[in-house]
Amino acid sequence: MGSRASEPDGPDPRRVVQIVTTQRAGTGRRGSGYRVSGDAVLTAAHVVSDAVSVRLRFVTEDGGTTELPGEQAWADSASDIAVLKIARDASTDGLCAAEVSPVRFAQVAQPVDCEAVGFPRFKLRPDTVSPDRDAPTWYRDSHHARGTTTPLANLRAGSLEISVHPPEYDPEPGRSPWEGMSGAVVWSGGCVIGVVVEHHRSDGLGRLAASQVKRWYRLTPAQVGRLNELIGLPARADRLAQLPPPSRPVTSELDDAPEVWESVRRLAREVDTQWRHEEQRRRVHAPYPLAVRFRCTPTRNLFDHWENIRKAPPGTEPGSLPLDGRLDQITEVYGSIPSRRLVVLGEAGSGKTILTLRFVLDWLRTRAPGERVPVIFGLGAWDPSTTSLDDWMCGQLVRDYPFLGAPSSHGGMAADVLLDENKILPVLDGFDEIADGLHGAALRVLSRTATPLLLTSRSAEYSRAVTETCVLTDAAVMELEGLTVDDYAGYLHRASQPAAEGGTHSTVWGPVLAKLREQPGNPGAANLAEVLTTPLMVALARTVYSDSPRRDPSELLDTTRFTSPEALQDHLLAAFVPAVYDPTPTGRGTGHRPRWHPERAQRWLEYLAAHLDQLDTHNLAWWTLGTTMRRSSRILAVGFLAALAFGLTMGIGNLPVDLVATSNGLRFAIERGLMVGLLHGLVVGLVFGLAYGAMSRSTPVEPSRVRIQFFGGDRERRATSACRFKLGLGAGLPTALVLVLIDRGVVEPLGFDDGLNGGLAGAALFPLEVGLGTGLVLGIMAWLEAPIDIKSEVSASDLLSTNRKNVIFHMLTWMLVIGLPAGLAHGLEAGPVRGLLAGLVFGVEAAFGGGLGYGLSFTAWGQWVALSRMWLPLTGRLPWAVISFLDDAHERGVLRQTGAVYQFRHARLRDHLAHVFQERHPAHRSSAPGMAVREPLAPEQRLDSGDTPQSFINGNLSGSTHGDDI
């Protein structure tokens, strides 16, 4: 009774079952079945109907039998199929736990050969080893029926006709010789295509009728989902194998391109890994999934005609679809919609994002090769008035999965190809988060495309957009329902530690849940019941009270403290961050995690929320963290750091040169170094500060998604290289000329001429050398840049590391290109020692002055260093280890990660923290009291307006937390 390791290519005799039942009337019935999983047996429903006991008899390899108890797990009389479970006890635990290879299911389109193994009545045999030879016992042996099936027969009945070799004679004209064959699984091509259910005597002895697999999809989505759990039936009919296998269709050259399928495979794996880890971090199903339910919206004007949704032929009225179900049935419900276009509506925190996550994971789990890959897109970043949907999705794909930015041999990027070839299933989360005034435009764009999609939105925003424009074409609409006490009572109970007193089933939630059930009219209970209708609030309540043993949820019933449901919601939102950063030994800030101070973590998160609110986005990207500072402050910070880097390098570099090449002594070298470093640093800082100021007028510099590649290069890269060379030449010449004028017009008149300026020749050659060197560096870097390869991983830290490596290589290139020629020139003039020293000094100055200055002004990593790693931590807005803090907040469930960016786990939490920030800093409040800023602030309202570094530090690290409840 073992199992084979590989998928079966036909019936396995060790898994064939004879079913023996006892009816309520005391009579017995025989049937057949097949073990399809560790403890599940597939059979016909009428075999076990009205049975009071079921025995499952297996034939062993030596010809003996093993009989085990069974029980009915699922049955449907209309399709006449049932699933039995091997009853678990000490004797069957090992059998049920044994590995059993899954069966495959198929539908039949043309006549095919088939087979079935069962125990029909005509195989009745006397037992030759019976102890009583005068009255022997009888048994039914197995029969291996082989034949063909003709799918166009029995069209009205809907059954599958099986033509087999008939028995030689009919032993009892009043009874069918095939009696007992019912429940036998019908196989073809290594797949299950049906279950034998009937023998019509009028058809003759050589024909049987089977319940065919493809007709099982007329069951409700809930029933199909249950069969998926029990026997592995695919969630959708279009995922059944086709028999006979379809001939290979004529496909485009692109369909056969290995790079396309490799990209699809890679994307499916990364999406699955990304969201599976996110689900685990958020403890979505711990201790078990909440019973989130949905139903077809009763508001008729929100969805299209059922004829369009069901793709019905003209003149037909197919009626509505059953869209009611639970969270774990979302893929089945979506698969039952022929148009594959679905809108999910729900209020804030009702579980829309969790539904999209569950949909993606379940779809990928049962996804057939070649099917679309579901990808979640946060719609809040889309502006339909300026960017097409495909272009925007392409940009999001490249941001979150950089390997899709690789060039394709068919033109464009891999992301473009996947979109063009319909390999992406868009899961568009947060229609309501699109900027106000653009919902109608977005809905019109989505209606003009026939792309399958799943869209989520709050009800009010979607309803308003439909009223102003039109329904989303071909799309069904369903709504998420609120949770009840019964839905979350067990969840909160099992997530809490057992109470020290009160029995093994008592927890801190016991009295609260009892009051919610027994006194629903009590004001405190009514307020709390209304709040806990959303999964978000249940999850927050679990974190604040179940995970913190020092907290008592009974306080949530106090109407003097919490006068309304809104007050309770504010309390849970305010208490969430302190709860997850609890520094006590039983808190979550122990073990390998950094132990951030709760109050400081709260202030840093408030700043991040206000930063996102000011940018009007949900995406927290490391390269935009400093962009909400005043532009003048950013220019000052970048210019100061560029001046500091170049000035220090220039000043220190002058010391060995003057000490070795002149006889002026140490004091002269130090004084000259200080003066030259200060003046040159000011010039370079001014240049790079102005350059950054010009760049910062547009959108923030995004991180470079390129790597350094020494070989290769195409026409586009050559053109970019030439353009960069001209830019470097144009910027380097005037900068070097100003430096020469400072040396000749300021340094020398003050008595600090070291005699190494080269005279007129040096004054003429220096600007040319710097200009050509700068142009060469920029041109070489443009030539060497190539898109990140397909093996690159996507995360904030990985993208940051790639950009840091690029900037460091950039600095080395400055050092070699400018320092090496300078050394050679001085070596020919003054000897190898001075030449080597001059080349080293010039190279280091170029690397730190030019390379680092360029990085600070023109690269995302440089601006990250200048603003997020230095200025914002220095002023107390963020910690010094910013990425570690973000990663830790992600692990604690405060943030979630979407590709290379972070988001707050819910918009309600972000808005709450942003509002608290505005309360702490009244100068930054929005015009509407009590509401977070929803539009970009004017320059005079930027987050750092009026805040000195010290005052901000004092405000961040001292004072009480928001509200008395923390």
Structure explained in plain terms:
The chain is of the alpha+beta class and 966 residues long. The protein has five domains: 13-237, Thrombin, subunit H, CATH 2.40.10; 258-480, Rossmann fold, CATH 3.40.50; 485-580; 598-625 and 878-957, no CATH class; 631-867, no CATH class. The protein is 43% helix and 15% strand. It has 27 helices and 27 strands. Strands 18-17-23-19-22-21-20 form a seven-stranded mixed β-sheet. Strands 1-2-3-6-5-4 form a six-stranded antiparallel β-barrel. A six-stranded antiparallel barrel has the order 8-11-12-15-14-13. Strand 2 and strand 3 form a beta hairpin. Helix 18 runs antiparallel to helix 23 (832-858). The radius of gyration is 37 Å and the shape is elongated. Mean pLDDT is 78; it is low at 1-6, 248-256, 585-591, 787-794 and 925-966.
